[in-house]
Give the backbone structure.
Amino acid sequence: MNKKLTIALVAHDQRKADMVEWAVFNAATLSKHVLVCTGTTGGLIKNAFEGKGVNAEIICMNSGPLGGDAEIAAMVVRHEISLAIFLIDDLNAQPHEADIQMLLRQCRIHNVPIACNRYSADLMITSSLWDNEEYLPKVPQYIKFNRE
């Protein structure tokens, strides 16, 4: 991949180990890009990368419950995020559910690819479309549908 992307990495507590394992597995690719993480997830990835001798630009926002999801959603709105990986804990309720839904919604509205599991994350990060100069994602259209 030749383009330098800004990739958001977010993981709920029960998915943090999975995110760190995924990030280490993809460290060679991720280290070529800017990583924007919620606070705790970013700290864990930094530590794992340092332990493996991986040098990467990692920017940590607040932790999710303290506004990190909202900070990343704002970056999506400003077109500062190229790709988001959000490993969600679907088995436990989250106290900041509104922020989670806002981040997911803004990614959908602003046409930012978002992966919510490792398989889709692997597919997205390895896509040849990132290097295709002719490919431009189409801006979503919200047009009223006439059912008559």
